[in-house]
């Protein structure tokens, strides 16, 4: 991954850390998932990869009050921060935050 791409990912991770406006309060980036392809043109269709990334409410009968009220999984498995898995041939999925 080039240095420009890394800077953009860092900007996404930290975009609310340097701007504490009254409107956003304690807004933070949660669960940044990055697909990295070995080819610039991509090694898998985006829709096929995103369809396998699922966000579900842990208890859909109560209002969500925090990010922890949801579970995010890829093919049914949760990823820890910093963990990477092989999502498809020549495609890696990483959780950044």
Determine the N-to-C terminus distance. 18 Å
Q: Provide the structure class.
A: alpha+beta
**Biggest sheet strand line-up:** 1-5-4
Structural Rg: 15 Å
What value does the average pLDDT take?
88
Number of strands: 5
Main beta-sheet strand count, sense and barrel state? 3 strands, antiparallel
Helix content: 10-25%
- The SSE string, one letter per element, is HEHEEEE
Q: Assign an overall shape.
A: flat
- Output the number of helix runs: 2
* Model regions low in confidence, pLDDT < 50 over at least 5 residues: none
Q: What layout of secondary structure does this protein have?
A:
Blueprint: H1 3-14, E1 33-37, H2 46-50, E2 53-57, E3 70-74, E4 84-88, E5 91-95
Antiparallel strand pairs: 1-5, 2-3, 4-5
């Amino acid at each position: 991954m080039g240095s420009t791409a890394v800077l953009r990912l860092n900007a996404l991770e930290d975009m609310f850390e340097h701007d504490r406006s009254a409107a956003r309060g304690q807004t933070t980036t949660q669960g940044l998932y990055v697909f990295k392809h070995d080819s610039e043109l991509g090694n898998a269709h985006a829709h096929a990869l995103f369809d396998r990334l699922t966000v579900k409410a842990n208890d859909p009968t109560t209002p969500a009050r925090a990010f922890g009220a949801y579970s995010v999984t890829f093919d049914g498995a949760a990823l820890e921060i910093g963990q990477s898995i092989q999502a498809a041939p020549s495609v890696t999925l990483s959780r950044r935050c």
